Amino acid sequence: MNPSQTAFTRRGFLGLAAAAAAAPTLSACGGSSSSSRNSIEFWDMPWATPAYNTAAKKITQSYAPASGDRRANYQIIQWNNFYQTFSSAIASKTGPAVSTGAGFQAFQFEQQGAIAHADNVIDALKKNGQYDDFLPGVLEPFKSDNGYVAVPWQMDMRVFWYRKSLLDKVGAAVPTDWPSLLQAGKALKKAGAIGFCTGSGAGNNIGNHFLIAMMLNNGGGVWTPDGHLDLLNDRNVEAVDFVRELVSNGVIDPGAVSYTTNNMDAQWKDKQAGFGLYVLGLPQRVGDTSGDIMAASPLTGPHGDKAALVFLNNIMMYRNTPSQPSSEAFLVYYLGRIKQLWQQNLMNSLPVFKSITALPEFTKDANNVRILKEYQPIAKTSAARGTALRANLAVLDGGQAINQFTQTVLGGKTDAKSALRTFQSGLQSVITS
Amino acid sequence: MTTTTNGLAKARRGVTPGGPGRAPAKRHPTSPLRAQATRTFFWLLLPSVLLLVLINGYPLVYAAIQATHSGSLIDAGRFVGLDNFTHVLTSAAFWKAAEFTVVFTIVGVFGSWLVGLGLALLLRTRIPARGVFKILLLLPWVVPIVVSSTAWNWLVATPQSPVPALLHSLGLGTPLFLADPTLAAVTVCVFKVWVSFPFMMMMSASALASVDPSVYEAASMDGAGRRQQFTRITLPLIARSTYISWILMTIFCVNDFPTIYLLTGGGPADATNSLVVFAYRTVFQNFQTGPGVAVAFLMTVTLVVVSAVLYRQIRKSSVE
User: Fold this and answer.
1) Which of residues 179-208 of A touch B (CB under 8 A)?
2) Residues A108, A47 within the same domain
3) Residues A319 and A355 in one domain
4) In a mutagenesis test of the B interface, which of A81, A271, A400 is the best target, namely the one with the most B β-carbons within 10 Å?
5) I need a surface site. Which of A122, A383, B32, B112 has the fewest CB within 10 A?
6) How confident is the model at residue B319 (pLDDT cuts 50, 70, 90)?
7) Which range of residues forms the domain containing residue B279?
8) Which of these, B39, B3, B262, B282, lies nearest to A401 by C-alpha position?
């Protein structure tokens, strides 16, 4: 073998190897930013069964942009580690141009300068008439000093549910206020059932939402109207004291502190739970659509207050887009087509548009009608007693402080004021402004 | 004869006849061919080394930047020096998590080792269907943690779950395995032992297989009982493998996120909050990137120190 030929081959091989090794690294460094892509990247979450994503993808793919605008591309993003997924993508400029996501995600990314405001979209909705189709109170929370941070598209309401046969069995009326809740709960407990079904185990936020809902139901709330922490107000103390009373009477199961949503689903399905706060579509969720599980009316607080807790899910736009007008045009188009999702019975949430609430596919469910009629008008976000949504609400909703607070209260081992004081200091230490 | 024996022993210990220490390295004259071979090796290795440095080094450097800044996952923010470290080290929640991590690790390592070693010893004896048992005993390690944590939740979470129901029927009350802070900590530790013992069993079984049976025969002839054989022969002879399994299991336990997070989420009231869960919750639930990454850094340093100490034990056991 010719030595010089061997050397050449070896060098050639080494060069190729180095190039092959460097290629993925360099391409990873460069990324494929949205700005270098031709289409509008729309990232959507698995909001319901896979059929939902199939339908949403079809809507996206059916988008025929006007001349000069770009087409849209649909991608499903899993909830698992979603915040990391979005953050990494935004940081590397490979993120979406438009996305759905967690309720307060838009406000978090706005704080970090990544969100494109939706004022032009709102203007377009005013022109095409869809603006007037919004249900009252759903759009205002998204208006910040800088403009609309996102546009709502569905509502995630927390609803009081009851199992009719269990209440009938123990001779209790459907609770309408706090004393009747306690009374019915005691009767259910006495009969060996769960008087009030809730939980704050691994990955379960329902217990957190229950406590916030009870504060709102009593005219309280986590914040002052101008957005400062105010957990120790009298109404909150009273609400937490009432929950402790439910715990001490065994109306709330002592194990609730560790119940996951799977445990709660099983309790509803197995006819152990008589009453409780849960998500929309509970009968479908646990596979009992016999009419035995029904939505109760919102409770009336001891001072005559009535309120429900709602999460306004929204669609947001990002500054990293190949074309902002194209992002806006796509979002206007998409909002005009989401009606199909309810028409196909794919959604487990309330719509934000009046026209969808009038659809026969929506009104055929008596629970939906009741929730829309009785809960939606009195619904408040976790920003109450303020109204504007903010990034800090993400820390409130899923943070350690509220989990610890809920587990402490449901564990029944402390008084209301101490629990609220610890909650307030825990939350204060992690909120950004 | 004595000289020969001593010489042989020294040779086995790596001691040269000229005295203790390493044998002097052979010196090769530097030929052009050898230099070229060295260069070739260097260039062949370079792409892999570069990739390794980039893959491991980049996240480490970026994490160091995040740990010393006050920003988010998107933007590192402003430099704050060691403030994040000070913040976490003065936090009661951090020390509570550290305390649970230590307990969880000690129980996880030694609990799974004891069970694993015991089963490995048992499986050496002639029991019927030994092969089937070996496979069945591996299941906790093989089954995805999501499945096993769901199964454990089903077993113990509610008063109607099989284990509390059984205890209730035996008149032992209705223990709330995941709702009571102490019981939840115990349950998580037991779950960890259950998940991990097959690994320890395999490590122990392979170490035991390497022990020459004639050693036991000789010991029996010298009058050593079973207990003496175990403490004086078995344990010392499998020490190296044991230390390695301890190091690995320590790393597994300290870094174990799913076992805890899926079963209790760190609750109730932070009773099972380990450092890795604490770091995750700090970054992704409280959105405090700097302090969360600082926790991860502190964990890494601690693990390196603990591993180094155990590694020294391995070297010592090898020499002995």
Assistant:
1) 200-204
2) yes
3) yes
4) A400
5) B32
6) low
7) 95-286+310-319
8) B282
- Token representation of residue A419: 């629990």
Task: Look up the domain containing A293 and give its range.
Answer: 157-310+386-428
A202 lies in the same domain as A249: yes
- Total domains, chain A: 2
Q: Are residues A147 and A172 in the same domain?
A: no
Residue B270 near chain A (CB below 8 Å):
yes
The model's pTM: 0.84
Helix segments in A321-430, DSSP class H: 324-337, 339-343, 354-357, 360-363, 366-370, 392-398, 400-411, 416-428
pLDDT digits (tens, 9 = 90+) for A334-350: 999 999 999 999 998 99
Asked if the Cβ–Cβ distance from B74 to A411 is below 8 Å, we say no
What is the least distance, in Å, from the CA of A119 to any CA of chain B? 24
The answer to whether B262 contacts chain A (CB < 8 Å) is yes
Q: How many CB pairs under 8 A join A and B?
A: 128
Dump pLDDT digits (tens) for A358-392. 999 999 999 999 999 999 999 999 999 988 888 88
Domain identity same for A285 and A173:
yes
Q: Indicate whether A138 pLDDT > 90.
A: yes
Q: Do A81 and B284 touch (CB under 8 A)?
A: yes
Report the alpha-carbon distance of residue B82 to residue A302 in Å, rounded: 50
pLDDT digits 0-9 by tens, A7-42: 444 444 444 444 444 443 434 443 444 444 689 999
Query: Nearest residue on chain A to B277, judged by CA atoms?
Result: A400
Same domain, yes or no: A193 and A131: no
Assess whether A269 and A236 both reside in one domain: yes
- Measured CA to CA, the distance from residue A13 to residue A5 in angstroms comes to 12
Closest chain A C-alpha to B319 CA, distance in angstroms = 41
Element housing B113 (H / E):
helix B112-124
Name the A residues in 96-125 with CB < 8 Å from any B CB: 108-109, 112-114
Which class for A366: exposed (0-12), middle (13-18), buried (19 or more C-beta within 10 A)?
exposed
Whether residue A193 sits in one domain with residue A317: no
- The mean predicted confidence, pLDDT, of chain B is 87
CATH number at residue B274: 1.10.3720.10
Q: Does A25 touch chain B (CB under 8 A)?
A: yes
Which ranges of A129-177 does DSSP label H, i.e. alpha helix? 164-170
Residue B280 lies in a domain: yes
Contact A14 B184 (CB under 8 A): no
Identify the pLDDT of residue B48.
92
**How far is B269 from chain A, CA to nearest CA, in Å?**
5
- End position of a domain, from candidates A326, A346, A372: A372
Number of structural domains in chain B: 1
Q: State whether residue A146 is helix, strand or coil.
A: coil
